[in-house]
Amino acid sequence: SPAEKLDVNGLVRSFVSGGSTRFVSTDGSVEARFGTYTTPYAYAGSQSNHPFVFITNGSERARLSAAGGLSVGTTVDAGAGNLLVAGSITSSKAGKNSFTGIDTTSYAAGVGGSIDLGGNYRTTGDASYFTRIAAEKTNGVNNDYGYDLGFYVTTNGGSTIGTKVATMTSSGRV
């Protein structure tokens, strides 16, 4: 006899309007959809204002928030449009590997991408950024690609990155 109300052994096809199969919580507040569009791609996700969680071996491994943040290896919300990885990120391919951080702010002096590094700074496990390496546009002139490389540190007792300790100019001087 079946173990559940619906117990299928074999292929299951779902043909519904909109090309998706819906799974809804008993109170109707959470809805997941799996389906296809007429264009050649499939989709899976949360239709309601809830995260879409990826689980393996009974444990959460990744989470896509309702705001579009992706958390990998942690249940902490990455925030809208951010990627949060608990662990190492490995990039491997033939040729050059790169990490790209682009600031899409309108051209102005001081805009640019950065790499922030940090860790725990006390026994309560408070993680924070300690240092920053930043590409900084040298002026607000259109089509001027002059950038400096700024190096920042956090002073003892400081709570934010803020002390610039060195600059490498676009001409290579430190």
Give a verbal description of the structure.
The chain is mainly β. The model has no long low-confidence stretch (mean pLDDT 83). The chain has no helices and eleven strands. 4% of the residues are buried. The protein is 0% helix and 37% strand. The strands form three sheets. The chain has a four-stranded mixed beta sheet, with no helix packed on it.
Q: How is the secondary structure organized here?
A:
Blueprint: E1 20-24, E2 31-36, E3 42-46, E4 52-56, E5 59-64, E6 70-72, E7 83-85, E8 114-120, E9 127-137, E10 147-153, E11 163-168
Order of helices and strands: EEEEEEEEEEE
Number of helices: 0
Instruction: Please identify the structural class as seen in this structure.
Output: mainly beta
Poorly predicted spans: none
Strands ordered across the widest β-sheet: 4-5-6-7
Give the oligomeric state of the chains in this entry, treating copies of one chain as homo and distinct chains as hetero.
Answer: single chain
Q: Over the alpha carbons, how many angstroms does the gyration radius reach?
A: 24 Å
- Straight-line distance between termini: 77 Å
Categorize the overall geometry. Answer: elongated
Strand percent estimate: 35-45%
Number of strands: 11
Mean pLDDT score: 83
Largest sheet: 4 strands, mixed
How much helical structure, as a percent, in the residues?
A: under 10%
